[in-house]
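Subject: Protein entry, chain in single-letter code together with its fold tokens

Area: Proteins and the way their chains fold up in space.

Attached in line: The record itself begins immediately under this heading.
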Amino acid sequence: MLDLVPVRSDQTTADAVSATLSLARTADELGYRRYWLAEHHNMPAVAATNPPVLIGLVAGATSGIRVGSGGVMLPNHAPLVVAEQFALLEAAFPGRIDLGIGRAPGSDPVTSYALRHGAGGVSDEAVNRFPEYVDNVLAMMEPSGVGLGIQGRTYPLRATPRATSVPAIWLLGSSDYSARLAAEKGMPYVFAHHFSGSGTAEALALYRDSFRPSPELAQPQTFLTVNAVVAETEEEAARLALPQLQAMLALRTGQELLPQRLVEEAEKVELPQAHLELLETMAERWVIGAPDRARARIEELAATYGVDEVMVHPVAGAFTGTEPGASPAREHTLRLLA
């Protein structure tokens, strides 16, 4: 499953993190395979600003599920910092850490500038040097590290002193660029179907057709991401999906981004016809419904795109009176799917 650590109108940041830890324990107990956390900045409805910190919290609160980033936006960070963070997480939770790497900023231009220039170590050219930075992260996490040549001498550079294992490393994307790069480097790849909703088949076909085996991966490996709201009835699922649909609508139409509305708040919002049509188009690409229908839809998506796994992004909202430190409808989505 994927988690953006949503923040509702009735929650503080602390409440949102508490709800995520409860959700992660639920996923772990139900036998879900992975729990990935996103990187987004300066968004009132999203608390997933720092994947490594959240991964440490979630991995420490669970026992078996793999925990990873979906993803770390590499141009925002120095490669050595990312390598150090995930090498340390892998040392603390061996065999349970995934590093998903993306190229997008994960924020607005002003916040991107603050991220890339505030510490003086990352610049705008990081986007153009993305393939090189991916190579750097991969190499520095290896037990042997890399040799850095300075003034005629070679200095050893390692992300951690004595690594005995490395995280699984994935490339993420919503365009052909990352599909080509993952294929070229022989890395597993994920297309952001839950966000983009179009171009999935083309990106996955490009990845598979261009794939070059690597020492780490002999054949293509990928999964599908999908937004999901599952409830006892179709009607309840549709109500619970409304707050997140409105949040995505605001993002796509340039409206003010607000904390996620409660269901009753969302139901009072009056939208123009054009926005209603866009909202309905988005909903058609999501998995919204009762368990049997949801299962059939997920199996259909998996077969259509020929993926190895499906990653569910549970986006169910909450009704008025819900405990602020919990997200029961998101947990119920996982239980009903399981």
